[in-house]
Amino acid sequence: MVNRPHLRPATGGSIRRQLVVQLLIVAAVLSGLLYLSVRGVADTAVETTQDSILGAATIAIAEELRGGEDGVSIDIPYTAFSMLGSIGEDRVFYRILVGGETVTGYPDLALPESPPGSGLDPRFFTTSYDGSEVRAAAVVRSVLVEGRNTEVMVIVAQTRGAKDAIVAQMANRAALLGLGFFALAAVLSVITARSVLNPVQRLAEAVGRRGPDDLRPVERPVPSELAPLVRALNGFIARLSGALSRTETFIAEAAHHIRTPLATLRTQAEIALRKTDDEATRDSLRAMIRAADDSARSAGQLLDHAAVVYRTDQRTEERIDLCQLARDMSDSFGPTADIRDIDLTTDLCAPPVEITADRLLVESALRNLLDNAIKYSLPDGSVAVTVGTDGGRAVIRVLDRGRGLSGARTTQLTGRFRRGTNVADVVGSGLGLTIVREVARAQGGEFRITEREGGGTCAELSLPL
Amino acid sequence: MRFLLVEDNPDLARSVADRLALDGHGVDIAGTLSEAEDHLAAATYDLILLDIMLPDGDGRDFLAAHRRAKRDTPVIVMTARSAVSDRVALLDTGADDYVTKPFDFNELEARVRAVLRRRMGTSSPSVSFADLTFDPLSATVRVAGADRELRNRELRLFEILLAAPGRIYSKGQLCDRLFSATEAVTDNAIEVYVGRLRKKLDGSAARIETVRGVGYRLVTD
Lengths: 465, 221
Prior knowledge:
CATH superfamily of the largest domain in chain B: Response regulator
Largest sheet of chain A: 5 strands, antiparallel
Largest sheet of chain B: 5 strands, parallel
Strand content of chain B: 15-25%
Order of helices and strands of chain B: EHEHEEEHEHEHEEEEHHHEE
Strand content of chain A: 15-25%
Structural class of chain B: alpha/beta
Strand order of the largest sheet of chain B: 2-1-3-6-7
Shape of chain A: rod-shaped
Shape of chain B: elongated
Mean pLDDT of chain A: 85
Strand order of the largest sheet of chain A: 4-3-7-6-5
CATH class of the largest domain in chain B: Alpha Beta
Structural class of chain A: alpha+beta
Oligomer: heterodimer
Radius of gyration of chain A: 51 Å
Number of strands of chain A: 14
Helix content of chain B: 40-55%
Number of helices of chain A: 9
CATH topology of the largest domain in chain B: Rossmann fold
Distance between the termini of chain B: 30 Å
Low-confidence stretches of chain B: none
Distance between the termini of chain A: 25 Å
Number of domains of chain B: 2
Helix content of chain A: 40-55%
């Protein structure tokens, strides 16, 4: 019941993760498209370049064709091949046909599927030669041979090694570009997800920072998407604060309604006691007064115990000066000790001993210890409250010269409704030390009650500094 | 002393008034805060006993208004709750002290005495009997020019005897007034305190006489 761990909400996935993953998928698709399109453009560009060089070389050869009475003569220009060499270390093949007959070059070089039109307009096609893929250009020209117009076809082909190398190189760059784009998009999507979810985070922090008594509605401006959540939260806060204030009111009223009649009963019994001389009646009246005190004390301690358990979950920590607290508490118990001629003294160490704790809890503990010490002291006895430090802990001791513990141990006395074996004649509820123990536990401290040398009891509450 | 008792439960108010009257105090009862205002306007009181939950408002608000108006009649709050935070809040509001219902009248008396002692300091009125002077607030008797301090029970015993010199009080009567009903005491416990008080009065013309088989009385030589 005490030290209940904080409840962790069940989480069904993360909006941020979902957002990041979706943004990354979009970025990956875009990067892929970028890669493919760059690659495609590069491929086309390189092919166009190769084609235009091939075309120019083919035309240059075709223009050198000379017709004559004894056939066709050709002087293959060196420039044609040097142009082709500018693309790369590729092999070049050619074939020249006159009227359908191969006259020079590589006779097995493939012809275009449809013959190019005359007029030096090259036709480009892709075929394979000698096991390699080649790009070829073919032109047709009419030459006067033996007085007749004869069609001469010039085909020039080139392997595609250089073109493939260039395309591969550009593809690599495109891949790098795509990866870079993807990495940038990943970073941006994480940043975006965070900034989109920032209002949620800030709202959570604002609600989380609140003290346990702060039940005002949430009023910070939020994006419209969060408005329903905040409305629901405010509705819940309103219901909670209503329930709490009803509980508080109920406890106050319960105490009032129980204790007021008891006060009347006790007072009437005291009056009767003063007015009668009959010993039997007087004994009954004393028993009535004891019973009234007993009920009142039990009711009070049950409510205190409920308050301590409630506060254990809802602590409001603050800096407390234990010396000041001990002084105030002794002042308040002064008259109670006084009517039994008990000396109530305080011995507080010189520098104030400050701890971080819930004031109400520590006060409840100290009040119960003082109440016990005075209750179990003999008339003319003495009770001392000391505050000091010991090994990094604040130590409060309440010492009396009362009846002691008859060998009972701390654990036997701090159980709920458990009392010592030697206290039947003193009014008590058996909850006082339970409250002290629970306070010690809630504040990470320790409580010990021991027999004192020379008689009496030493109750020691140590709390972390 | 004159008390103003602000308490809405008529049974309790009547009982407390009767009980205080037994000790010779005068008590006016107000059942609501507005009645309390009327009483305060008409008379002066030594002390106000104030309940918290009243039909026409919260006793703490009344207390705060009382202090804002710079009226300095001491106030002891009667609360039904025992939580310490209540006490701190009450004292901050301007209460001089508080008692938790149901209260022991011996304790109430001790608290009233402590409040008045704080308020009045050394200027408290004293009572003379025979050749001694008695100051109830500072709990001292002056015998032959020397102040002797009385412990609480000696003080109360002396007050009881001094209220009616010559009257005989039985041990039982004295026990009821000196000890709380929840304390286990024997009749001869009273002899201890009579003995102590006799020592404090030693050398004065006032003395406590034992009336054999009946009780004690205060007489002067």
